[in-house]
Design brief:
The structure holds two protein chains of two kinds. By secondary structure, chain A is mainly beta. Chain A has no helices and eleven strands. In chain A, β4 and β5 form a beta hairpin. Helix content of chain B is 0%, strand content 50%. Chain B is globular, with a radius of gyration of 13 Å. The relative contact order of chain B is 0.33. Classes of the chains: A mainly beta, B mainly beta. At the A-B interface, β4, β5, β9 and β10 of A face β4, β5 and β10 of B.
Chain lengths: 111, 114
């Protein structure tokens, strides 16, 4: 069983839609949860990180962590064509050193 | 502030040859990581340096892979001899102390072994 599961998509939405991206995980010891955005042929770009459970908001992006369900989400409001990319979730133990990644979800926002 | 840089961006070598990948972390970042993504799979951890010391090399696949970090600055990852299954994208990341969860990635080196 993989440590982190992520639906690869692809996901296609119209501009302005709310996008929901999700990951599930198996290791209850994960404490840090990260979301990265990766454009084609580029490196992953850190969007947000959260510690333990709860919500965190940054502009149009909201990250949610539900440790009881081992489920994390990233919401994108008012999606833009520039949001078209692959979104990767990652998580780590309390030391935070080794990241465990999902395979990524490909998102296309159609103008 | 300059980001993490990696060189080369792409390398094509034959099976049995040697390749050395280089990573320059963000200035002042003590933590440096190597990850690899094989086609169709998730990004996987290889190893972690704190300054010039290897903190965790549990993800290194075998002894054909050798990583060094000179003087706690740039790092190199050597593959010798390369095998077909070593093909993939090698990412380097760095993070400041004491925020290991805030890892910033480079653009990656795409390695193709033929």
């Amino acid at each position: 069983q993989k440590e982190v599961e992520q639906d690869p998509g692809p996901l296609s939405v119209p501009e302005g839609a709310i996008v929901s991206l999700n990951c599930t995980y198996s290791n209850s010891a994960f404490q840090y949860f990260m979301w990265y955005r990766q454009y084609s042929r580029k490196g992953p770009e850190l969007l947000m990180y959260t510690y333990s459970s709860g919500n965190k908001e940054d502009g149009r992006f909201t990250a949610q962590v539900d440790k009881s369900s081992k489920y994390i989400s990233l919401f994108i409001r008012d999606s833009q064509p520039s949001d078209s990319a692959t979104y990767l979730c990652a998580m780590s133990l309390n030391t935070g050193n080794q990241f465990y990644f999902g395979t990524g979800t490909s998102l296309t926002v159609i103008p | 502030e300059a980001g993490v840089t990696q060189f080369p961006s792409h390398s094509v070598i034959e099976k049995g040859q040697t390749v050395t990948l280089r990573c320059d972390p963000i200035s002042g970042h003590d933590n440096l990581y190597w990850y690899r993504r094989v086609m169709g799979k998730e990004i996987k951890f290889l190893l972690h340096f704190v300054k010039e010391s290897k903190q965790d090399e549990s993800g290194m696949p075998n002894n054909r892979f050798l990583a060094e970090r000179t003087g706690g600055t740039y790092s190199t990852l050597k593959v010798q001899p390369a095998e077909l299954e070593d093909s993939g994208v090698y990412f380097c990341a760095s993070s400041p102390y004491p925020s290991p969860y805030e890892q910033y990635f480079g653009p990656g080196t795409r390695l193709t072994v033929t």
